[in-house]
Amino acid sequence: MTMNDLKVGQWGTIDCVGGEGALRLRFLDMGLIPGTKVQLKKIAPMGDPIQIHVRGYELTLRREDAKKITLREESL
Questions:
Q1: What does the pLDDT profile of the chain (76 residues) look like in tens digits?
Q2: 38, 71 Cβ separation under 8 angstroms
Q3: How many Å apart are CA 27 and CA 46, to the nearest integer?
Q4: Residue 25: which residues within 8 A CB-CB, separation 6 or more?
Q5: Would the pTM of this model clear 0.85, i.e. be above it?
Q6: Which helix (H) or strand (E) holds 17?
Q7: Pairwise CA distance, residues 4 & 18, whole Å
Q8: 7: helix, coil or strand?
């Protein structure tokens, strides 16, 4: 499953961070590191972008970028 597949309120643990070069480094710099728990908080009215809760702060990502981050589903 990818971060794009989460439903509002659902938790997941980052399994793998995709992307290439600068994009992957930007994800890692934002705290999207394997083993980190994330929660989908909101989806914009038109469906893009999405807002997630990660490491104590809110982060907004485009759906296209969220598809590059794979997760393990968590039940909290």
A1: 888 889 999 999 999 998 888 999 998 998 899 999 999 999 999 888 999 999 999 999 999 999 999 998 766 5
A2: yes
A3: 23
A4: none
A5: no
A6: strand 11-17
A7: 13
A8: coil
Query: The tokens of 3 are what?
Result: 């971060």
Q: What are the two backbone dihedrals, phi and then psi, of residue 29, each rounded to the nearest 5 degrees?
A: -65, -30
Burial of 36 (0-12, 13-18, 19+ CB in 10 A): middle
Measure the CA–CA gap between 76 and 11, rounded to whole angstroms: 7
Bridge-partner residues for 53, per DSSP? 39, 58
Instruction: Report residue 20 as tokens.
Output: 């290439």
| Tokens 């509002």, located at residue | 8
